[in-house]
Amino acid sequence: xxxxxxxxxxxxxxxxxxxxxxxxxxxxxxxxxxxxxxxxxxxxxxxxxxxxxxxxxxxxxxxxxxxxxxxxxxxxxxxxxxxxxxxxxxxxxxxxxxxxxxxxxxxxxxxxxxxxxxxxxxxxxxxxxxxxxxxxxxxxxxxxxxxxxxxxxxxxxxxxxxxxxxxxxxxxxxxxxxxxxxxxxxxxxxxxxxxxxxxxxxxxxxxxxxxxxxxxxxxxxxxxxxxxxxxxxxxxxxxxxxxxxxxxxxxxxxxxxxxxxxxxxxxxxxxxxxxxxxxxxxxxxxxxxxxxxxxxxxxxxxxxxxxxxxxxxxxxxxxxxxxxxxxxxxxxxxxxxxxxxxxxxxxxxxxxxxxxxxxxxxxxxxxxxxxxxxxxxxxxxxxxxxxxxxxxxxxxxxxxxxxxxxxxxxxxxxxxxxxxxxxxxxxxxxxxxxxxxxxxxxxxxxxxxxxxxxxxxxxxxxxxxxxxxxxxxxxxxxxxxxxxxxxxxxxxxxxxxxxxxxxxxxxxxxxxxxxxxxxxxxxxxxxxxxxxxxxxxxxxxxxxxxxxxxxxxxxxxxxxxxxxxxxxxxxxxxxxxxxxxxxxxxxxxxxxxxxxxxxxxxxxxxxxxxxxxxxxxxxxxxxxxxxxxxxxxxxxxxxxxxxxxxxxxxxxxxxxxxxxxxxxxxxxxxxxxxxxxxxxxxxxxxxxxxxxxxxxxxxxxxxxxxxxxx
Length: 710
Hints:
The longest helix is centred in the first third of the chain and has 21 residues, at about 195-215. The radius of gyration is 33 Å and the shape is globular. Helix 5 packs across helix 12 (about 175-190), helix 12 (about 175-190) packs antiparallel against helix 13 (about 195-215) and helix 12 packs parallel to helix 14. The chain is of the alpha+beta class.
C-alpha cells in the first residue's frame, strides 16, 4: 500500500514496508485493457479478476466464485468505454476496490457488491436489475454506497450522501467497508486532479473517512489513508519524514537483532510465537519524532509477536518483562479491556543492554486479523447457522441474498458499536445538511469511548458515551427528549450535579422531574458532549426562549439549619466536668462510633469518626478524647430531604415524621432550584434505633428521592 498521493512512480521506493510479500504488484491498467479487448470464456473467471479470486480463496477456500464472474461481466459491460481521469479504463477502479477488500478477507457478498458499487451511479444499470440478478442483500449494499444526485441536492449532495451511507451502515456495516476501500483507491490516484480538489478530498478523508476506519477497526486502510492525506495536506512535514526514513534505510537497523533475541527467549520458554519487525508508517514516524525529538534506529519500527492463544500473550509478556528491562509507562492491556473498535493486543516496551528501546505488540493471529481488517474480518454478521447451512445446501454463498430474507428491515447487528447507534439517533434530529455535516465531524473527532451502567436495571443495561461525557449526555442517551426534565443524578450511589463528568464503569441513576413543563437551562450546552444532547437542548431553547430564562435560577444559597443543637445529648466524654456538644456537621447519634476533641472554653465537641473534621483535627496533631453513649435511647438528629417540588410536600413529610412518633424541633425549606427542593429537619427521636425506619418513611413520600444525615 502506498503513502504517495501525487507521485505513483515513487510508491515502492517511499513505502517498501507496504509492498505485499509473495505477490507481485498488480498492473490494473494492463488488466483493465485486457478485460476490454480479450475474449473471456463463459466457463471460467475473466483473467482480469483472477487476482481477486486468488486473494478471496486465500481467506475463503470453499467460496463459490460464480457470482463474482457474473458481477464482473455486468460491471465490465456497463462501464465499457468509460475512462478514469488517470487514463485507465474505468473497470480498473471497481477491480482495485474489490482486490483491497479481498485481501482483507471480505466475504463473497461484499466483493460482489464492490464490483457493482458504481454501476447504478455511473451507468444505465438500475437497482431493480441488481436485485433481480444478485438478490436483495447485494442490492441493499450497492444502494447504500451510491451517491445521491447532485442535481437534486446541490451543495448538500456530499453531506446527504454520507448521511444516506451511514444510515445504511447502521443496517449493514459492509456498506462502509466498500466506501473505505473506494476512497483508498481514489486517494492513491488523486495526483491527476487539481491541487485544490486534492486538498478538499483529503480534508473530507481526514475528518470523516479516517475516523470511520478507526471506529470500524480497519487499521490496514486507516494507516494508508493517513499517509496519503499527510502527503497532500502537510507536504513539508511529509518530505521531512520521508527524509528521516530514507536516512534510516542506510543505517544498521537494531530491531532484527532484538527480534532474534526475543525469539531465543521465547524458544527457551517453550512458547511458540512468530516475531516480526513491523516498520512504522509515515504518520507514525512523524508523531514519534515530535514526541521524542531525535530518533534512534529502534524508533522506526516495532516488534509484532503473534501467538496461538490468549494465555500465550500473557506468557510472552512475562518472559519479556523478566528477561529485559520493561518500560512500565508503555504497558497497555487491550485484551482484558478491548478498544471500542474491536482492537485487542498487549502493548509494552523494553530497554536493551545497549540502550535501545523496543516497542512490542503481542496478540493472537485472530486478534491480528481483526486488528488489520476490523469489521471486514467478521465475514457476514447476519448469516445465522441455519441460514448458512441452507445456503450451502442450495449452492449459494454464505453472504448471498438467500441467507437474508429482507435486508431492509432493521436488524440487530453484532458489529454495531455504541458510537454508530448514537450517530443514527441524532442524525434524525439534524435535518439541516450543514448542521449534520458539522456535528458529524465533531462526533468523529472523539477518539475515546466509555461505558456506564444504568442503576435502574432497565434495558439496555449499559450506555455507550464518548470520553468526557457528562450526566447530561447520559440523560439524553437514555430518555431522549424526556431528559429535558432531568434535575439531577446519582453516580455510584452518590447524588451529583448533571454537569458531572462520567468515567468508564460508573453506575448512573438519572432523576426526572414530574413537571412536564420543565426544561434544560442554557448552561447545559457547555457540558453536553454528544450531538444528540446538544441538538435536543438547542431545539428546546429555541422553541422556549422565555423558558430558558426561567430555568436559569440563581445559585442555591448555603443551607442554614434552624435550631441546630448545642447540647451533648446522650454523649459522655471521659473528661471530668467537661461540657459535651454534638457536632452539627455530622450529627452523631447512638450507636455511631464517635470521637471527641477539646475546643476553646474546655468543651468537648463530638463527631462521627467518618466526619472530615476528625481527619482534619488529627492532621493538626489534636488528641481525641474518648466518648461513649449513655444507656438512654433518645437522641436528636438533623436530616436533609431532597425532593421534586409539588404542592403539599411539606405537609406530607411532616405527617410521615409524626407517624413515626418523632418530634420536629425545627424545619427549613429552601427555595426551589430547577424543580428541586431541599428540606432540613432537626428531629428529637425517642429511640436512636428508629432512625433507619424514619428515613425510609420519609423516602416513601411521593416526590422525595433522597434522605440523608446532615
